[in-house]
């Protein structure tokens, strides 16, 4: 097994799979209406590239940390790979964490950006944002990146 994995990373395996099976199903899920949706490997790669480009536009730098708080859905996986492609470290947070626990983890890893699925998860970050001095931006699944006001700026 070591020999088969030597020299490979999550990113090289992802790119290889996207190249070998561009039209095959990569992700499948049911939407809110119960209808099955999916992404092919090629579409998955395109979505990851969009996230990576967005992170670079938000001045996310190699070595930085991004928190992800989302349920088991494609956006979570896309954000995770987007962060890796931007040479950062994704940190997945359990959905059941209290705001104080979100603050502890996000502060400990010095997350500069957070992806959140919905208003409830956004509220957990908002409740403790004054205690997250490194956090610059929260990206909401349905809204563009939301820059946070500085501590001195209020809001």
| Main structural class | alpha/beta
- Oligomeric status: single chain
Task: State the share of residues found in helices, binned by percent.
Answer: 40-55%
Average the pLDDT over all residues and give the rounded result.
89
The largest sheet, given as strand count, sense and whether it forms a barrel, is: 5 strands, mixed
Count of DSSP strands: 7
Shape: globular
How much of the sequence is in beta strands?
Answer: 15-25%
Q: What is the end-to-end distance?
A: 53 Å
Query: What is the gyration radius calculated from CA atoms?
Result: 17 Å
**Number of distinct helices:** 6
Which strands sit side by side, in order, in the main sheet?
A: 4-3-5-6-7
Q: Which sequence of SSEs, written as H and E, runs from N to C?
A: HHEEHEHEHEHEE
Uncertain segments: 144-155
């Amino acid at each position: 097994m070591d020999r088969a994995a030597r020299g490979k990373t999550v990113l090289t395996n992802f790119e290889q799979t996207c190249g070998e099976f561009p039209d095959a199903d990569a992700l499948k899920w049911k939407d809110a209406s119960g209808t099955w949706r999916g992404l092919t490997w090629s579409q998955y790669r395109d979505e990851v590239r969009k996230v990576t480009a967005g992170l670079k536009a938000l001045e996310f730098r190699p070595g930085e940390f991004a928190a992800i708080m989302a349920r088991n859905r494609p956006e979570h996986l896309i954000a995770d790979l987007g962060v890796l492609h931007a040479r950062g470290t994704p940190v997945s947070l359990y959905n059941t964490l209290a705001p104080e626990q979100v603050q502890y983890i996000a502060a400990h890893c010095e997350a500069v950006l957070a992806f959140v699925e919905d208003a409830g998860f956004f509220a957990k970050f908002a409740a403790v944002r004054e205690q997250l001095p490194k956090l610059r931006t929260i990206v909401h699944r349905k809204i563009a990146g939301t820059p946070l006001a500085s501590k001195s700026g209020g809001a």
